[in-house]
Amino acid sequence: MYWVQQITAAPLIAALILLLSLIPARHVLLPLWPSAAQELILVLDETDGERPVARRLFVYDDPIDGLSGEVLARTEPLSLARIESRNGDSLLGYPVALRSAIEDGETRDEPLSAAFDSGWLEPMPGETGQLALLGPDDQVLTLPMESIQRLYYPNRLGLIDRTLLLLRRSTSCWAGACVPNAQSSHSAVISDE
């Protein structure tokens, strides 16, 4: 009976030691953990004539402490993507099309490829043209594909995908191209102002 106790106690003690050693690492790993993205509709304290003014924002996780106004609606859309650029910036939006240049300076919009249906893309497919992105003010932003380091849908990611993305972001940080979550800065990523 003694050997049964030893076999069960040893892994439990090893797991406890491993968990306790990870407590200091949570300060390093939490900013790299891909958090959920939300779409908020705020009713601001100001009015436009007789009607109150509403504003739509895209935010990470829960950084709404500094926002003025009342939250009218809060959703976590599956198609809201986070784009991390090679220079360290990141933004949220809805990818709507791939834009390519044709003759005489005109552009042509093409539908998104099947690669955009996965949880994240890294590196970007094609590396040419531009990604058309719908912002919270319903304006289309265009981003050059070569400037995008990573695109992912934070609300589609499961635990395994989040862990794999955490490992990718950790290796990027060690290589010098770190893009932590916005929750450390508590600011809205894109707004219509």
What does the model show?
This protein is an alpha+beta fold and 193 residues long. Helix content is 22%, strand content 35%. It has 3 helices and 11 strands. It has helices at residues 2-22, 26-29, 159-175; strands at residues 37-48, 51-60, 70-75, 81-85, 90-101, 107-110, 120-121, 130-134, 140-144, 148-152, 190-191. Strands 4, 5, 6, 7, 8, 9 and 10 form a 7-stranded antiparallel sheet that branches. It is extended and about 80 Å long.
Helix-strand layout with pairing:
Blueprint (H helix, E strand, L loop, with lengths): L1 H21 L3 H4 L7 E12 L2 E10 L9 E6 L5 E5 L4 E12 L5 E4 L9 E2 L8 E5 L5 E5 L3 E5 L6 H17 L14 E2 L2
Order of helices and strands: HHEEEEEEEEEEHE
Put simply, the count of helices is: 3
- Give the termini separation: 70 Å
| Whole-angstrom Rg | 21 Å
User: How much strand content do the residues show?
Assistant: 35-45%
Helix content: 10-25%
**Uncertain segments of ≥5 residues (pLDDT<50)?**
182-193
Q: Describe the sheet with the most strands.
A: 7 strands, antiparallel
- The gross shape turns out to be extended
Structural class: alpha+beta
Total E-strand runs = 11
Q: What is the residue-mean pLDDT, rounded to a whole number?
A: 77
